[in-house]
Design goal:
It is a single chain. α3 links the parallel β3 and β4. The protein is α/β, with parallel strands linked by helices. It is globular. The protein has helices at residues 2-23, 83-96, 111-122, 142-147, 151-166, 208-213, 256-259, 280-290, 328-341; strands at 43-48, 72-73, 100-105, 129-134, 175-176, 179-185, 200-205, 220-221, 246-249, 297-300, 315-316. The protein has a single domain, classed as Glycosidases (TIM Barrel, Alpha-Beta Barrel), CATH 3.20.20.
């Protein structure tokens, strides 16, 4: 029964994909040229989440099953809206050598929207650039991809993004191929993107290869989930370089809700180096250094996604062995310095 349902779903998605390709941007890669050509031109970006409210038990700090946390930020359970917190984060990003911040954005007028505006105001002070990552704030199901993220969706948000972020901060908003980059997180963009020459769109997703096999638009990995599960030692790994010379790295993936017992199921099997004992992050960055001529953009997942424990932000770790000297932030800074300095 399940295989029949899956087959029907696949056929339905393929039909929808063919329909979408006639209505807006093609669902496959748009053929954007890589900006690669050597380590000196590599851009380092980080996914940044601005949804936290002040104090444990409040917004995204253990306030629901899906927002469980087990690690604690070095400065405590902060508010993303606190200017001193934003400055602390941006200063650390700059000092680590990060160039671009991909800001998780959940629609006009939301808490995340208000914080994103504050972040953009402060970015020039730290020499950083940023791009908006449009999250699936109207729903994340397959049906939502068809019904909720079509032309009317983009007609409503593109002018807002242009006015509030792109035109307002022309020197700060990150550009790819000379045009403002607008990121979407699947299912946004899987079936439809505006056909416009003003912007560059990239769809960020998990299971990128599966989505592409279905004929859907998926450009960049959120994190290298194709390496998971990674719970035992490995000698060698290979990362996937996507369009634009993009490659994703992460220090860990380990859903806090699964670890705390609040969530169970197949999603809990997707784990990568839960205690840092396997040195996955060092192996990923070492691969990037070795293949730097193929890479133009390194995207780190994440600065502070505590629910999936991928954070490089300084924090008190719940599972790292006490005798293990392994700091994702320091590792990030070290490898970025080597990458940009051309060191092996």
């Amino acid at each position: 029964m399940l295989s029949t349902v899956v087959a029907i779903l696949i056929i339905t998605l393929l039909v929808l994909a063919m329909w979408a390709s006639r209505q807006g941007s093609p669902v496959g890669s748009d053929g954007g040229r890589s900006n690669g050509g050597g380590a000196s031109g590599v851009t380092v970006a980080v996914f940044y989440y601005v949804w936290y409210c002040d104090g444990l038990g409040k917004g995204h700090w253990n306030d629901s099953v899906i927002t469980a946390v087990v690690d604690k930020p070095a400065i405590g359970y902060y508010s993303s809206a606190n200017e001193s917190v934003i400055e602390w984060q941006l200063r650390l990003m700059r000092d680590a050598g990060i160039d671009v911040v991909f800001i998780s954005w959940w629609g006009p007028g939301t808490y995340e929207d208000r914080v994103a505006k504050e972040v953009f105001k402060l970015l020039p002070k730290y020499g950083l650039k940023a791009a908006i990552l449009v999250e699936p704030f109207k729903g994340s199901g397959v049906v939502d991809a068809v019904i909720k993220y079509g032309p009317s969706f983009w007609d409503s948000i593109l002018p807002y993004l242009e006015k509030e972020f792109i035109s307002k901060y022309p020197d700060t908003y990150f550009k790819l191929e000379g045009k403002p980059l607008i990121l979407t997180f699947a299912p946004v963009g899987l079936l439809y993107l505006p056909r416009t020459g003003e912007y560059v769109f990239r769809v960020v997703a998990t299971h990128v290869d599966t989505l592409r096999a279905l004929g859907l638009r998926a450009d960049w990995d959120l994190w290298p989930d194709y390496l998971a599960p990674w719970t035992a030692p490995r000698e060698g790994i290979s990362l996937k370089v996507r369009v634009d010379g993009y490659v994703a790295v992460t220090p860990r993936f380990d859903r806090a809700s699964c670890r705390s017992g609040m969530e169970r199921g197949k999603q809990c099997e997707l784990v990568l180096d839960p205690t840092y004992a396997l040195g996955a992050y060092v192996k990923e960055w070492s691969w990037v250094l070795k293949h730097s001529r193929e890479v133009s953009i390194v995207a780190i997942y994440s600065w502070n996604e505590y629910h999936e424990r991928s954070e490089i932000e300084p924090h008190h770790d719940a599972t790292k062995p006490k005798n293990l000297t392994y700091d994702p932030y320091e590792i990030t800074a070290e490898f970025i310095a080597r990458l940009k300095g051309g060191a092996p």
